[in-house]
Amino acid sequence: MLALRTICMVKKLTLLTSIFGILESLIYVLGLSIVLSGEQTLLEMIVYALGFGLGLIVGIHIEDRLAIGFTSVVANIREKNEALIQHLREKGFGVTVFIGEGRESSRYRLDILTKRSKEDELMEIISEYEPSAFVIFYEPKRFQGGFLLDLMKRKPRRSKTMKPIIKKTNSLQETEINKP
């Protein structure tokens, strides 16, 4: 819980941080009450400490599986690979291409933003098309604008029987929902 709480806190996921904090404190209170309730042997204290350390490892692996957040990927390739760029875009990845000056020749830089859960898929595609690509992964903290902004926001679900009606009022758009 400590590992998950810390990771969520760093990513500023306040609700998850709070939930993991509550669970963590319950585990501490329960665990410490057992440890401090009587005379404990050295072996029991070592087992408690090992359990704490193993809990951190398990927490990190759980967070890695949950893959919370986004990754910004920079891939440097020798030539402009239109097939790679097109394939990435077809798979839903936003790709921005830059031309740069490398030591030996011009290089192409692909800037790609993706969910962490799609990192492996992205890396497989890059490796398939450009096995010698130089790839760096970064963790962005804030977003504003751009192609993927709408994809990153959660859209509320609505009934299929409801259809939006858009009408203009004072240069602003208002959406009303028809009720069956």
Describe this structure in words.
Helices cover 45% and strands 24% of the residues. The protein is α+β, with helices and mostly antiparallel strands. The radius of gyration is 24 Å and the shape is elongated. The model is unreliable at 154-180 (pLDDT under 50).
- Provide the domain count: 2
User: What is the overall pLDDT average?
Assistant: 78
Query: Any idea what the CATH architecture of the largest domain is?
Result: 2-Layer Sandwich
The percentage of residues in β strands lies in 15-25%
Helical content (DSSP H or I, runs of 4+): 40-55%
Total count of helical runs of at least 4 residues: 6
Structural class: alpha+beta
CATH class of the largest domain: Alpha Beta
Order of helices and strands: HHHEHEEHEHEE
Output the radius of gyration. Answer: 24 Å
